[in-house]
Amino acid sequence: MPELPEVEVVRRGLDAHVVGSTFGNVDVLHPRAVRGNDVDLAEVLPGLTVTGTDRRGKFMWLTLSDGSALLVHLRMSGQMLVGEPGLVDSPHLRIRAQLMGPGGVKELAFVDQRTFGSWQYVPLTAPELGEGRSLPAAIPHIAPDPFEPDFDAVATARKMRTKNSAVKTILLDQSVVSGIGSIYADEAMWAAGVKPTRKGKALRQRDAVALLEESQAVMARALEAGGTSFDSLYVNVNGASGYFSRSLNAYGQAGKPCARCGTPISRTVINGRSSYYCQVCQTR
Predict the structure, then answer these.
(1) Which CATH number describes the domain made up of 4-123?
(2) How far apart are the two ends of the chain, measured CA to CA in Å?
(3) 83 phi and psi, to 5 degrees?
(4) What is the location of CATH 1.10.8.50 in the chain?
(5) What does the pLDDT profile of the chain (284 residues) look like in tens digits?
(6) Which residues are identified as catalytic?
(7) Domain 153-277 falls in which CATH fold?
(8) Which of 76, 111, 183, 259 is most buried (most C-beta within 10 Å)?
């Protein structure tokens, strides 16, 4: 599943290519892509202008000229592709939207092989994210992510330390801290030297803060590399893949030597999720 860096790469692409454009015809080609809507996107979106883009964790949205938002969740395989009308020819095309702007007519295509992703037309709350930003009313349960200006690492670390779950599970809990998935959780734990099975209650405050700081740092590096792509399911708005998979130290590296000490990376399963770590380096 795309995590924060991958979603942010897509958001930046949309910000560059669709802000200022106005929706024309919208064709919904699969009903699952618009589940959860109380309105027909084909009726409500035409005539609305995209005024901006934003993101929290793995959710991103387009702000619209009527004060609402188009909330997008890529889930496992969603892609937002921008190009010339008719350019996208895929059996997994779920929504096709015409966009009219200063540069002419473009097409915003939502491709989703596994049909877990969605577009939702939702209201925005009153500004609460700072700097005049508003949160879509559909995601009040999603905690702030480490890239938000008002993210409080100290308070989040304290919350982590109230949990009796494994650290890996806590980092994936989007109600504690959002945007971190299995890839960057494993990389952050490796960087901070924390064992993934350690309980949150057993963490020292400084170790919990270090985990959050390393999460932000590794995701920042991934963002510079365009995200992490293991297959063709995650791509930018122009169809390009990310290259951070070449820089992974723990995730998916079972049996390979640890970059710090040379010990083979181990794999374990925590709550049904694979976790990769170094038995020698990750002792905290």
Answers:
(1) 3.20.190.10
(2) 28
(3) -170, -170
(4) 153-277
(5) 689 999 999 999 999 999 999 999 999 999 999 999 999 999 999 999 999 999 999 999 999 999 999 999 999 889 999 999 998 989 999 999 999 998 899 999 999 999 999 999 999 986 666 667 889 989 988 999 999 988 999 999 999 999 999 999 999 999 999 999 999 999 999 999 999 999 999 999 999 999 999 999 999 999 888 887 655 556 677 777 776 777 899 999 999 999 999 999 999 999 999 999 999 999 87
(6) 2-3, 58, 273
(7) Helicase, Ruva Protein; domain 3 (1.10.8)
(8) 183
